[in-house]
Amino acid sequence: MGFKDLRNAFERMNIHHHKEQSASGASNTPFQQPFQRPLDNADRVSGISDPENIFATPIATGKPPEIFKRAKHSEVPQGCTLDEPIQTNNFYNNLTLGDQCCPVWTLPYSLWLTKDPEQNHGLAFNHTEAAQRVFGPEPNANPAQFYFNPPRIKSFVLSSDDFRHDDDIRLTLHEHKKMSVTARLENSKGCIVVPLVMGMGFITAMYDRICPLIASQVGYQEFKKIDCVDALQKYSVKLFNQVVWTIYSDIELKLRDPNHIVGASPGTIQIARGDSSHYDDTAGCYPVSIDLTGKVEGQVGEYRFVYNTVGRSRSGDTLVWTLPHQSEIIACSSGSRLDLVLDSPTKGPMTAFKTKELVMREEELPVDIQWDPWNSCSNSNNNNPTGWSDQAKYALIRQAAAEEIQQDVIGMANIDSMYTSGKILDKFAYIAYVCHFVLHDEQLTSNILSRVKQAIEIFAKNQQKFPLVYDTTWKGLISSAEPGADFGNSNYNDHHFHYGYHIHAIALVAKIDKNWLFENGNLVYNYAIALLRDVASPQADQYFPQSRSFCWFHGHSFAHGIFASGDGKDEESSSEDYHFAYAMKLFALVVGDSAMEKRANLMLAIMKRAMNMYMLYSNDNKIQPKQFIPNKVAGISFENKIDYSTYFGRGTIGDEWIHGIHMLPITPVSSYIRGPTFVKEEWDEKLAPIIDRIPDGWKGILMLNKALFDPKSSYEWFASESFNPAQMDNGMSRTWSLAYTSAFL
């Protein structure tokens, strides 16, 4: 198929309405038009229809309950032409916000729309290596407070002579999926189409009706044609920063001047950092999207990335990059592991694979961690708590419960924050759980349970101070408060944090009284399902996107919603991230949703591996820079930066807020993620020197976290006669703290 056929194929496609065209005739070039499914796709993606696929069945498909008023969002997504759910917390969200010029990270590359005055307009991209990281505020400090990668270095800009500085160049986005999107940069003369896929091996650009111009702000020191790879021209480029890149093209390219490479006709171009025979083997084939599937059997779970590709290569495969938490558990059936490594911005070295499918296998899912306290300490009784049989401990738990249930549950919970109200509901739901399952006290249980139910039902009826609304623009459940209120909930910040507390509280109460979920026309059940669909739909439907918060590629969630950010998405609370997954698991256990339970267990296993590489640092951490590991926790993890801080400060005494935000709330799953070795190192090196001077609720969080390696001293603090309730976080109860810590004594 020559260029004339390629151009005709472009013209046949109705890209704005996502009408896919089938292949027409044989091809003499490895490149094919974008958005075309490969002919063997149905065979390769057969797992998607597998009934064991835990992502196959949606949580629900109907409209969100009518109690959530419909409203248009004040922030209009840029470049999005279809009325469908749009991702709000994932890697390409920057391209939907503001001027669309903030970078996105497909890993290991970053890309951004550039419209800088008097420079070539187009889609710029770059790769940074570990040696370029900037540490601060004191460059030589150990530990450093932060590090970041230099942004917006224009190694290349995909442009054209037909893109003039004064043109109205438009960037639109198509084929929206969780881990991929297709960018189309165009004006009245033509367009450049660039698939953006997480881990993609090449930057691939298809030029339609316009001729390529590949600019470089760094500049081209050397440009030479190497040879032909089948029907492709291969070029080697050395920039003035001495970094070598390889370019493959189905048209002839030439160096016009030290800053511009040009082609005489439209065509398809692929660019990758470095030079390797593996690039030769995979050039011509590129992914346009990723399908996610998964299976769980017992404690073993697999999740699979199926790359839908276009074109053909020598090997028949494409090249993809994997992060460390993926590469160490990739099954041998996932193609060839290559001797190619490139640094990621904040997650260590990425390893290349030659494949069209990656299968990651986790073998220690937390299947047995359910409701009762669990602790991974070697000297604790994990699965059969015995401390409650001690009469003195039992009496103290009962005393704490009798005191705490006197509080105004409804008044404390019915406030103007989904986040804080969720913490309050969770606190009292845990007290009710202890009263029923630990104390077996019917009177105490009845006293607190009825009021917790009533408090939750205020939210289930959507009668709280700022009711939730269903946003018909981005499509999701958001607060009716202003974007600056409630931690940005109305702009999709922190939904998994906020809604995780509500779902966990509902699960605890439903464990005591399952029928309550289905009273009043399934009131509470419908509310919980709506929250779960907003955050963690296993697949996109017409009302919610797939997996809004959790990134199956990064291995953790992103809390950052629809606010443009130069350093990309971020998250500052690893613990509230896995708390959502744990809450989803408990809810699934109550309602008997096996697929949801398996997804939650798989998420937790992935988080355990990823978080202990990227967010929680034992002294033997091999991923983070050596001068950052002594911080012990990340603080705020961005795509391009890690900052040992929080959005609300560092601490009253030291850095206790930074550490505490990665601990709360302490539940049975905490010890699964936060192993005793790490917790003890963090305690000895960062917290022990300041713990006695902390005056407020952060001390209670840190002391309960201490139980993950030393339950005895943690229990003694909560059991002390001089115990001070002012040193408890508003989401904590002494009742649960005593029940949890005493279970292992």
UniProtKB/TrEMBL annotation:
Catalytic reaction(s) noted: Hydrolysis of (1->3)-beta-D-glucosidic linkages in (1->3)-beta-D-glucans
Pfam families documented for this protein: Glyco_hydro81C, Glyco_hydro_81
Organism superkingdom: Eukaryota
Region annotation Disordered: where it falls in the sequence: 18-43
PROSITE patterns assigned to the protein according to its UniProt record, in alphabetical order: GH81
EC id: 3.2.1.39
Top EC class for this record: hydrolase
All residue ranges annotated as the Glycosyl hydrolase family 81 C-terminal domain in the record: 391-738
Sequence ranges of Polar residues compositional bias: 22-35
Keyword terms: Carbohydrate metabolism, Cell wall biogenesis/degradation, Glycosidase, Hydrolase, Polysaccharide degradation
Domain spans labelled Glycosyl hydrolase family 81 N-terminal: 77-376
InterPro entries per record: Endo-beta-glucanase, GH81_C, GH81_N
PANTHER family reported for this sequence: ENDO-1,3(4)-BETA-GLUCANASE 1, GLUCAN ENDO-1,3-BETA-D-GLUCOSIDASE 2
Family per similarity comment: Belongs to the glycosyl hydrolase 81 family.
Protein name: glucan endo-1,3-beta-D-glucosidase
Species whose genome carries this gene: Lodderomyces beijingensis
